[in-house]
DNA sequence: TGCTGGCACTCGCACGCGCTGAGTGCCAAG
DNA sequence: CTTGGCACTCAGCGCGTGCGAGTGCCAGCA
């Protein structure tokens, strides 16, 4: 186990390294000057050697200072640093900026710009696009007395099918009836509107069939949710220019990753549900993002998270500040969504 | 006026310069070696001096070769180079790739990827997003006997107002009648559906009012068209890494410009209607794009162009090839849109 | 008049060199 | 366990040099 002071040294290294844009690593002497560690450079050197043995820091080349490794950043984020809260004026600014939004797209657009500006990194906002798709047709087929196949056709031409085991046998006539009622209500309507359009449908059926109808409906609703397209908005790519001074090589795979929406959606999707997640360097499954960190968090209008947002930046980032900004923005976006 | 051979020299310079990624300018000797100009380097030198006097080429520093200026590229594009047609296999590939699209968004997404890949540059596709907005309310106010104000409120909360000079005086009662009929038909409906919903409205009015009703309706339709949101999709930003070897400075403003959708929309909008437009370097109004060229063209499902697409890349680009790709893609996208 | 070869000149770039300074590891003493 | 001292390492920087591609100019030739 690392002693208290060694952790303190690691913290100091991370802070110093992250605090400057210079390509230099941080050395023992500079550390003792900038931080009140209460020990001499020589002691710090010993600690650094120990930290290096443990894999928390590394030297880019012999006789240079040390820089944190992914493992070092991980420890820093987990144990040594909190989330830096936004100041009151910052919070006000966030709120004001988001309050001006006129519709969902505008909210997302503003959010992405805001987040990019606050963190000076690349911002990514994922949001469900419930509004666009509409139902073209719903088909129900009886495969066995208590087994129905549901086929959903959307106006985009996508076809989804589900098997349904009914709680009770379901006659052909009831099935035809349900099919007709269902289509007359939902055909041409938006996914988002479907739940309320069908909620009283079971009432029109005999008591014995209601359970089955309810089952079919809930399967339909589930399918719709899965079909809901997830969209992404990205901003602040110009901040990539601050990456490193060497960066043609660094920046390219990142730009490529940002264009692969699938990659990003997966990235955000993997992150824990609603609590904040930080993925550092090689912790990102996607290889192109191996020298970047992704800070993401869920957000939503009510209590639970319906979507994710976050930023991607160099592993050498100000974690507490970034986490603070991401958390604050997510919170206010949730608030705005709840109001509207 | 420039002699035939001098134009040939300019063409050779542009081709050589564009053909390599090296930061070197092109000199007289190399030119005579790679192109069959039939004259000696010395002659070419004289021609180059003349071309420089006219402002078509420049030398980055004394005693280096020459590189084309914006004016030189302009001449090249206008007079010296045609549009390089795609080969048959390329055309087939384009068509196959686009044929797989399932909906408009998918078409646009595929187009942007395709264009980025073909040209190895940043692709931009603008498309009208007619489908999303709906009308909340239309208000008509009588300001004078033959003067009406039209106020349009959309579901996104946007408000547009227009003055209308009527061909004939229009009574309060007729106005109220029109207002009521109009709203009952279009409230809650999509912009795209409005034209057909109101087309027979004038029939319900007295002959003397029909002219005015028609005027009001056409103003409304115009307003809707203007309100139609224009959306953008961008791809291939990773190609920016091929810009120059110096590029932190070059790339940044370009990334910034790409994020300013307004800038891009304007850029595409300014371009000529349906014929291909090439804006070279400083011809672009937006300063950040002063070292890039934009090749754009209109596309649409029928004969006329409803939207634009194009690429932005370094002024040092393969113009014939890029123009060929842009034109081919626009053509096939139009075809796909017409089919669906 | 226009093309050509020759020649002197320019200057960016790559290479090699030595210096400097920040940083390290190790060691002996407190 | 901490500390000061010491020898060592090495990336980065500035400088001088040679090379080579390229130019402008000029005199001669068709």
TrEMBL record, chains A, B:
InterPro entries: GAF-like_dom_sf, HrcA, HrcA_C, WH-like_DNA-bd_sf, WH_DNA-bd_sf, WHTH_transcript_rep_HrcA_IDD
Coiled coil segments of this chain: none
UniProt keyword annotation of Transcription present: yes
Domain Heat-inducible transcription repressor HrcA C-terminal stretches: 105-323
Domain of life: Bacteria
GO BP field: negative regulation of DNA-templated transcription
GO MF, one example: DNA binding
PANTHER family from the UniProt entry: HEAT-INDUCIBLE TRANSCRIPTION REPRESSOR HRCA
Record-stated family: Belongs to the HrcA family.
Name of the molecule in the record: Heat-inducible transcription repressor HrcA
Species whose genome carries this gene: Streptomyces mirabilis
